[in-house]
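Hi R.,

Here's the input for the S-adenosylmethionine complex you asked about:
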Amino acid sequence: MRRRILVIGIGAGNPEYITVQAVKALNRASVFFLPNKGADKAGLLHLRQEICGRYIEGDDYRFVEFDIPERSKAGVYKSDVKAWRDEVRRIYERLLAEEIGEDETGAFLVWGDPSLYDGTMGILESIAATDAFDLDYEVIPGISSVSALAARHKVALNRIGEPLTVTTGRLLTKGMPDTGGNVVVMLDTQAGLRALDGDIEIHWGAYVGTEDEILISGKLRDVCDDIERQRVASKDENGWIMDTYLLAPPKDAGKT
Ligand SMILES: C[S@@+](CC[C@H](N)C(=O)[O-])C[C@H]1O[C@@H](n2cnc3c(N)ncnc32)[C@H](O)[C@@H]1O
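And here is the predicted structure with S-adenosylmethionine in place:
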């Protein structure tokens, strides 16, 4: 059974983050698989529908919604994620078997860029490896939340000639990575921020690119309270939050 799938990066929140290549890809697909993450995150589902309505010519396409299971947080992080991905993979296999015809092209609309903290490509690759489907998939890059954050704050991500590390809020609780240079933090838990050196410069952004966007920057010691306050208040108001931030250690940090 041949299945043609497009994995389309849709940018991280602003419908105008869509690239020309993504618009062309949207117009090649006829079945859009939309993850349903519950009432709290209904806005994310609507944004995907809005993007299709806005950029696809004509109405010869359909949506297939599917429920995304909650990931267990009871065990070891990596095995919880693996179990969750296996579950999502079974859902994808059902979608490919039941919801798309031989001559149709399906699409997954991936938030931001598909290469950054997103399992879609990995899951499709593991399905392709099983021979259950003759799977032909293509990936269209998108504007990640990291690019959007840097643009909104008008800052470069790295300092001249220095590395840039992208990490998670969970790992930051163990302290700043020892890779040197600036650090971008995603999937935040906010738990690690307060323990860091107050001289670190932070560029923080929540809901970047959307109408709810909040941007704060300054030295950690000056803005940490404000970030925490905004984070709690907007999470209460919206039911969810997505924030990303850039940390720039003082220039002489680490030198003896
Ligand atoms: C599962 S990852 C997906 C990342 C996505 N593939 C990308 O390219 O940005 C979700 C994390 O991305 C970040 N994120 C995504 N969209 C964001 C936005 N509009 N504003 C701030 N952070 C965002 C947050 O750190 C969030 O926890």
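One thing worth noting: The mean pLDDT is 92.

Cheers,
M.
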